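Long-time lurker, first post. I've been practising inverse folding by hand and with some scripts of my own, and I keep getting stuck on stretches where the structure tokens seem ambiguous. Below is the full token string for one chain I'm working on. Before anyone asks, I'm not after the true native sequence, just a reasonable design that respects the backbone. If someone could post their per-position residues I'd love to compare against what I wrote down in my notebook.
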């Protein structure tokens, strides 16, 4: 009887997630990530997080969801596709921003959907203690997605799904409700090294290891200081984030346009010429990136990135 109820609750949550527009939903048991602990410790000790100090905070909570939700039994992981119908300035010498930042900041979009899912859990199942997470706490998204059978973590350390590649957002709901766990899937990277070969700053130091402090995304978003001269000439016109390792991944031939209107770019974004980017004003920045992830870098940071790339002669 208990097994049937667990199965019923699991299917209910997965079907509701699909109704809310999530592309995938998987479940794993809420437990200490024993395998990840030494890896995370080594990565931090080698200072591969650069100035991302928050990565070193709450080490224990990052590895154990039961420290985030008392009595946690299950981690429900959802994925939402964000691959655009058209890419912006991918050809020629136009400036490029990461695809995830084209439309409305995913934090807003996914958190609203997840809150709706949690409300449905309360409505349909009853008194369940739970929290939703969209980059809002020390949760190892890719690890939980992998453990939930949604994909595998590729050599570029992004999650890859067999159905639609790696252009997906990951979020979680941690519950004190027992659910039926999914098993992990195999790693299908094989002998491919395209992501390692394509990274212009050699941020992928070896398969499955990324030095975050060498990544173009880090330099253009997280780094608050001046971008170091040793990476000049390597940005290939990326001014916010970078998709190179994903763009070259063979699994992304299965990527298909998302179904979330909020992720469509502001009409003004695709109309920006190279000159428009270089002369962007606070007013234009506010209008085009009002609810975009690009706001993280502020106008000053974006101008710094453009000035750095402009002098590369790309």
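-- Answer (accepted) --
I ran through it position by position. Result:
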């Amino acid at each position: 009887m208990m097994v049937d109820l667990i199965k019923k609750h699991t299917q209910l949550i997965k079907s509701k997630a699909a109704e809310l527009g999530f592309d995938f939903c998987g479940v794993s048991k809420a437990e200490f990530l024993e395998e990840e602990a030494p890896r995370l410790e080594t990565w931090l000790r080698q200072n591969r997080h650069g100035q991302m100090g928050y990565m070193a905070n709450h080490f224990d909570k990052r590895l154990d969801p039961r420290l985030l939700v008392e009595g946690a039994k299950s981690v429900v992981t959802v994925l939402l596709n964000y691959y655009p119908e058209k890419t912006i300035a991918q050809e020629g010498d136009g400036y490029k921003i990461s695809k995830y930042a084209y439309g409305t900041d995913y934090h807003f979009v996914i958190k609203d959907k997840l809150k709706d899912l949690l409300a449905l859990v309360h409505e349909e199942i009853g008194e369940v203690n739970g929290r939703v997470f969209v980059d809002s706490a020390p949760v190892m998204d890719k690890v939980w997605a992998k453990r939930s059978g949604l994909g595998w973590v590729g050599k570029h350390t992004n999650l890859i799904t067999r159905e639609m590649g790696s252009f997906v957002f990951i979020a979680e709901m941690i519950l004190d409700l027992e659910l039926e766990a999914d098993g992990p899937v195999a790693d299908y990277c094989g002998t491919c090294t395209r992501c390692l070969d394509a990274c212009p700053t050699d941020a992928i130091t070896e398969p499955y290891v990324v030095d975050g402090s060498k990544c173009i995304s880090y330099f253009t978003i997280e780094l608050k200081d001046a971008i170091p001269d040793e990476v000049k000439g390597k940005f290939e016109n990326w001014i916010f984030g970078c998709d190179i390792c994903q763009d070259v991944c063979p699994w992304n031939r299965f990527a298909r346009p998302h179904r979330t209107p909020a992720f469509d770019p502001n009409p003004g974004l695709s109309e920006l010429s190279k000159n428009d980017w270089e002369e962007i004003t606070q007013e234009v920045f506010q209008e085009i990136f009002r609810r975009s992830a690009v706001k993280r870098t502020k106008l000053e940071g974006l101008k710094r990135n453009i000035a750095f790339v402009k002098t590369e002669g790309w």
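A couple of notes from the structure itself: The beta strands are 24-29, 74-81, 96-97, 130-133, 152-153, 159-160, 168-175, 204-206, 209-210, 238-240. The first strand starts at residue 24 and ends at 29. Happy to go over any region you disagree with.
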